Structure prediction request, 420 residues.
Amino acid sequence: AEEKRLWQQKVKSLPSKKKIEEYRKRIKKIQLSMKKGDINNILQGLQDVQSLKKDINHDISTTRKTLRDFDMDYSRLKSRTMELNRAVSRDALRLSKKYSLSPKGLTHITQAILGPEVSTWAARSIKWYKRISPLLVRSKKYANGTELVKPIRMRGIDVHFREKNPLPDFLIKKAALSISTKAGSIKGKIQDITPDQDILGRPLVFSFKGSQLKGIDYVNINGELNHVSPTNSEDSIKFSIKGYRVSEMSISHNKNLPIVVKSGLIDLNGNLSLKNGKGLEADVISKLRSARIETTGVRHASLLESTISSALSGIQGFWIKITLKGTLDDYKASITSDLDSVLASSIRNVVAKQTALLKRRLYSAILNSTQAQTQEINGGLKDLLGTRTIITQRMGELASILSNMPQSDSNKGIGFPFQR
Prediction:
């Protein structure tokens, strides 16, 4: 509106139709005067032609500059309109990226879903280790590799003199075991059971195997408790379980996203070590295959959970790696899995549809909010096009008048009326 008002004022300052008509009348008057053949009239007519041409050229120059200024303003306004339209699209795209789901944002979904279950499993395993280890290894204190024995005041103590061939208090060289489970019998052996490994010079070694079990294809567990050097001890275990059949196994108790493996097979491989009773390191890889996963009873709290629930129903398997580092009382658990990429792949189409829908809605909302401004600018552009037509018409009329004026160029002659 402001631009329209300004240009209406500028158009008023241009040569009017009345002024252009006066130019035509002046030309006719000059032509009539010069046709009389009087030398004075001819000379006066030539002076009038020069004066008239000067006036018309001045008006043409002014009109041409006005047209240039107009084109610059029009181009600027048109750029503003285009930029406004682009801004609407950019804002819609930016907001849709910010608030819509993205497969790239699912890089830690496994940690969020399975983290609590992993923490529970780790705490339970460490609890059992703390219960069992005191039964297998005697607690002793050492300084610079020498055992420290603190006598109790006012009591006698047994004095152990250096033995030529020392022996542990007790020693079970080999024990064969058969562990009966619901799946069947797992057989194994334990060697060198003693609380005095530093005397024996050998660690406790164990191994267990089972095959053709009910619901399990294969089990293999082996390890050692090495306290031969009490100040540099290390307990380690390696295990492999293949074809463990599971059903109705909950892997997430999240109230908004409960995940249950209705049926499937699990392969489990891992190794754990504990150095000097403090340095804990563990790596466990679990592979779920031929699975049927359900998220029944889901109370969807968000679009993310709803999308994940839908995607999980189409997944038949995934692997997960659990890593523990730290101490028995202060450890850090980390989880990596292809479940992130599997979920990202499964929900890509869902994400694309949701993003496209959100983008359309945002575009419509932003467009509505800027509609008045856009309409005003577009209307102004349309009105200004009419203004340009007026300017070009005025300049065309002036140029036409100039081209039809009598010649006064000395190189072309004076242009006397009696010349042929």
Q: What stands out?
A: The chain has two domains: 2-97+371-403, 108-143+164-346. The helical segments are 2-12, 17-35, 39-99, 109-136, 197-200, 303-312, 339-369, 371-403. Confidence is low (pLDDT under 50) at residues 410-420.
